[in-house]
Amino acid sequence: MNGPAAAEDHERNLLENIAGIRIRRLQGLFLAHWQKWFSRRGLKVTPVQGGVLLLIRRYPDLSQNTLARLLRIEAPTLQQTLGPLLEQGFVARRRSQADGRIFELRLSEAGVRAAALVEAETPRHEADLLRNLSAEERALFLALLDKAIAGGEAAIAAQDPSSRETTVPIDAQPAADPIRT
Asked: How far apart are CA 44 and CA 35, in angstroms?
């Protein structure tokens, strides 16, 4: 076999064992599905913004710094994530009465409704997206993702031991009263 079809087969075989390409493909599918799913329901937020809404709903007056640690992201990235939520009126930011250097976050009424929609629809969105996996396969898939993430974090930390920072896993349950620093 020669020509474009042969070249395409060769390239596919060359890349089929590269996990990063498959992960990126799944991420792209996940994002496209999320956007269509929630846009049909009148909500325009990213998956991370949906997670932010859920965390702020659970922990009203959560500080921006604590939220960034929970999400394992840097402050500038958090600002990019929060911007559209502030613009849409889902989140209100105010200075802490206890420490004026700290910004606390709270959901508006519209934000509470948006968070409720995210919570209600995310399981349906994921079930639709992962429809080819049985319940057992999905549990295994999630466990393997967690294991791969832990390995990736260890590999990054090993590359630069001086930059090791203790962060809270995204799925960890913060204390009832997260530290507001």
From this structure: 7
Q: Answer yes or no: is pLDDT of 136 > 90.
A: yes
The Cα 48–Cα 121 span in angstroms is 15
Confidence (pLDDT) at 1: 58
Contact 9, 44 (CB under 8 A): no
Place of tokens 């995204």: 170
Q: What is the largest CA-CA distance in the chain?
A: 72
Closest CA to 62 of 27, 94, 84, 100: 94
Tokens standing for residue 14: 């060359």
144: its two tokens: 């393997």
Helices 109-129 & 47-58, crossing angle to 10 degrees? 130
Q: Which amino acid is at 125?
A: H
Tokens representing 26 are: 């799944």
| pTM exceeds cut of 0.85 | no
Which residue is listed with tokens 């997670």?
51
